[in-house]
Amino acid sequence: MLKRVYAVTSLLESKGEILILLRSERVSTYQGKWGGISGAVDEGRTPDEQALLEIREESGLSVEDVELIGKGDPLVFDDETLGLRKAVYPYLFHVKDRSKIKIDWEHKAMRWIEPGDIDNYETMPKLKEILERVLPPK
Asked: What CATH number is associated with residue 51?
């Protein structure tokens, strides 16, 4: 039986581009994969609260530095390699000043990309689907 995990993935947007981050060897999962700002939802915290906490921890941005522009329905999928059934709450935040971003130890690189270029990167599972859930319709 798969262990249930609730997580958030926040994508940051600026000037029509999204920020993807390369996960370091120091994290417990998906090392060397590109992703958004992610983390498990801590007990006693809502997904909304967790998303803002992860943004602060992983990018150095405060609540005042970002604006929520998209929130999607949770994406539920099985990650057999980790033995998990994940429910990921997707978010899209606009970054007011992207020069303020300072990534932490969880990531070793960051890159601003056009949303349509996501297929060119080796990403965490379901990152494209998470992105599609929060992007405004064209």
From this structure: 3.90.79.10
